Amino acid sequence: MIDNLSGDDGGGGGGESSQQVTTIKSMEKPPTPRNETNLCGLQNQGATCYLNVLIQTLLYTPEFREPLFRLTSKDLNLPANYSEQNLSSPGANNLKVRKIIVELQRLFAEMLLLNQQACSSIRLTDSFGWQSNEAIDHQDVHELNRLLFDAVQKSLQGTKQSNLIRSCYEGSTINYTQCKKCEKIFKRSEDYQDLPLVVQDTPNLSTSLANIFTISEQLIGDNQYRCSSCSNNLCDAEKWAKISKLPPILTLPLQRFVYDIKTGNRQKKTTRYEFPFEIDLQEFCEESVAETNYELFAVVIHKGTCYSGHYYGYIKDIDNIGTWVRPPSKSTSVKSSSKSKSSNTSSTPSNTTNDQTTRNSNESAETKEETMKKLDLVKTLLLSCDDWVTIDYLLKTYRENTTTSWSRTRGANGTFNKFLRNHPEVFEVDDKRVRLVQQTYPMDIDDNDINEMDYESSQNDLLENHDEHWFCFDDSIVSCVTREYIKKHYEQNDCAYMLFYRQKNRNRSKANTSYETLNLIPQWLRDEITEKNKILEEKRENYEKFQNQLSVTVYPSDWFEIVDGCRLNLNNNNQLLFPDHYGEHIFDKRTKINEFISKLEDLYGTGSHFYIAKKLRSGQLHIISELTCPSNDKTLDKTDLSTYHNIIVYKNPSLLPDTVLQGEEFEPIMLNIVYGFPDASRHASRLQPTKHISKNTTLLELKEILCYDYFQNDNPQRLKQIRMGKLNLEEKNNRKSRREYKPDEEKQTLEQLHLQDGDTLGIDDKNSFVPNWKDASSNNTNLGKNQLSLTIKNCLDTAYTKPMTYSCFNTTLIGEVKLMAIQAFGILLEADMCRLYVDDNPDLAHIPLYDHQSVDTINFKDNNTNLCLKFGHALKENDLLLYILSDREPCSLELVVDQNITLTELWLQIKHELKMDYNDNEYHLCEVTSSLADDEQPLNDFDQTLSANSLTNGAQLTMRPGSVAPKNHVRLKIFRILDKIYEPMEAIHIDPKYNTIEFGEYFELPIISPFNVLRERIAQYIEFRVPSNYARDVKPSEFIRLFDMENNQPVSIIHEPILTTLKQAKVQDLDSYAFELLSYPESLAKRDLLLNIVYNKDDDGNYFQHQFEVHWPLKENIIAKYEYLEQHVLTRVASYMTNNLHFQKVTKEKLKITLARYFPDRAEWIIIDPRSSSNTSQPTNKKNKTSNTPTKSNLKLEPYKLTDLTVIGVLEGEQLTVEDFDTKYDKKRRREIQQEKEQNRLSRDKNRTDNDHNKKNGSSGRRKSPQNTMRIDVDDFDN
Asked: Where is this region: Disordered (predicted)?
């Protein structure tokens, strides 16, 4: 019998073969079918509204659509019986498939035939060669129009429709120029596929066309014409243009975006610009043009700013493909909404109005305007999204599209979340997500605008244009509109951006156009979409059943006993299986109650009573109401059963006693009671420590009940001395452990006092003194020991799924519950081979319960005390069940491990289970904690236990490619410098290129190590030994010079000794360092400088001959003065001349030198002036606190800026000039730098010229970055 009510999805429990039915927990919602217009929209891939509106316009252009459908599979090089094959594979005769045309055909066919609110354009954009990131870039619909036509034209080469674009959209103009001197007229013809029109300072379409094709331009003055008939002399002339050929489809882009010379920014012109629905272009054409009458059939609307926005369109259904219903010009719903708003406003109390006036006293009209701008921008951003988006993502996108953050501008708008919630008519907001409210009319039209529409005008429009069917296509939403809606876009922010006209004499017969359109679709596409529609219908049918399934648990009345004469309690002290016809069943919510009760009576007997019950936290049931036959056709979803999902059956003649309290208001609350009277221990045996009290009971009534239970009599005088309070037994401070209720609170109900199941109340009198309430509660060993009713499902045997119930105390161990379930189900299985899981809680469904944990530790959801029994090794106290996700196995790997093993030992077990090489370390583990996989932190504390790595039972780990360093360690890439290369070789004073080689392994170091440890590790790795001629205390690490690296080249020296650790230096894992092995020990202090010295030029003065290094030690308080530098350089030069150049008796006192600093980026020298070391104690101007003469004593500062590896030129002689230091390379390099600067200047001038040209055309010269440039890739079909 129940089978008949359950439908296809349920029915367990009917007849002898009654079985438990498992409810489907979730199901993906299928695509929504078409709305009343019977037209299909397009899904937005992120920011593809510009593509959607263009595709929708082309679909409803018969001149484009029908020739496209006439292309056969052979024309498109498709293989026989082509369906869903990969377009990248060659087609018939190994010819390339014309994939753009194929996908246009498919998308057009789906939009005409597929019963879906919106189709996907992903296959089409894939055929364009677009990547996923290209679908989220805002682009211009006019630019796409040109690119798409070019792609279609190239894709149709060699087919019978190769002339499609030209025949539909291409026209031509003739530019006339008449020389006023010889009066000869020169003609030049130009083809066009669209005619861009200037909107700025133009009131309407006719004026824009007249400015181009009727008003002549005088070429005089600086703008004279060079006439070929007048010996190429400059002459005054007159220039004008005419249309020589009109296409069947005339495309008119409106140049809304202009360049503001004052601000240097682009602006969108939203001034009023009218366009007619019919137009005669005769006055703009040559006399030879015959067909000049056009009618408007599509308008593309742009909403937003120059840099971001949203496109949608109004399109005329020429062939009556859709179902059009005139939208009401004066909507009753809008009227009532407006009235309610006004009434609410008028009914606001005056004091509230005054408060609001005071609060908003600083708000001006400008503030309201700014609020509307914010509202408009947020709506525009949401229009680019298909459905729900997170509020955080929307706020981030808002900040990216404005220069001011919300926190600095919010003012009276409040927080961003509050701003959204303050506009419920625009935004639908839940906890973390937001979307636009679905509207039955176009969103851009304001309610007040609709009410203000002229009724007579709409009636005239109805009479004159009753055959016109206009629709608004806004991505996936399609709605019916009239001309009045379109005229609203003469101005406003959401204004007309492109206009499409078609020749009027091309009107088609309305009779069979819709049928003929569908009949033109290729058969293979019709078959494909028919199959898709079948699948969609099946999915919708299944989803509808899923949405209407109602899971109900049916209990027999003999399982319950009446307690306290007013409530029911499960009395099965042992485990019980549900009898036949009882247990969990799935019904259809749409079943009529009368029919449902009739079927139940057939099953359980006529006259039986059926009570709807709510399951409490304790697992007990509370009666809500009796299920009775209504006088109407009320269905199950309109009853309490759809909320509480439990039925208790009282078979005739048994009946629920009238004393049992029914209803939500009588729901019992389970309270723990602690008696604080001095003699409480003597009465503990007869007192009930747990009470179930209806939540509508007042505190005074509860006090009377407890007082009577304790003293066994009523005494009003004693009752006045009794006091009660809520206890917190975990509070160590006894005075804070109880909150005493005040006398005026005794009139409140338990629900009003916010008491919940499991709360503890203390009761005593004013003469009592309870030193410790926790000690008082310990006198009763049963305190907090409550009875629960568990439902356990059998998931081990799919053929035997009938559940059981088990009444137990909350202190019962899970192991005991599991043994009872095994016994009740009659399973021949050891207890160690199965586990219990929490059911009906998706967050905990994968986490098994420990046998040693008690029932009260389980986090049940929504009072559903349901468990399920599954296969798996039972978990011991220290065990963890881990799920390992990897690319080596299609399913997750389940591992039961001890939480005290290390992460390294876990890795060994994983490698063993996955049969990996034990030396394979190219993976690391991450714990999956959210959907944001990029935020997952790697587990790298290899020597610590799993618990120390914060892994818990049921943790899901994923294996990511790449190894990671142990915690608090870094791995460093080390390069060895082999030699230095100078280009050219003689230019030893320029920055060299280092020839390096990388070591084959990483150097792993603790993050707290100083750089000296890295030097020592390098010296050990290369097995360097200190030469014997050095003292024993010299360390090998002192021969290692360490460099930072950028772009695989050493850039700066790391000084030592230094106490800076790798962590303080912000060293990251896999950073790179280079080292140079020296022939001598080196110790660079923190402020020391290592300088490159070039010395002595050749005889011709073309280059320096010698190079060596100078270590210039600088103590903490020593300034880098010239005399100190000169002394170190002289000493080093004298030594170099004696030892290397073999000069005799060279002393630094006899050497006279000049020093110069070299700047490689400029190829320039600057003489280091000896006067730069002038006395720093010069007289100072006290007022300005600066010296009268600029001090240049510190060579580390401007203009010399000496740093490590700075090149210092040294020449013998005094008062030398820069020319003396210049080399042949320097002069050549400076010329190259000058040429590069000149080239950059010319490039900037060209850009300015291009910008000026764009300004004249009403557009901006702002160029798009390469990554945002739109493209469509097309194969070559010329051959």
From this structure: 1-38, 329-370, 1170-1195, 1226-1279
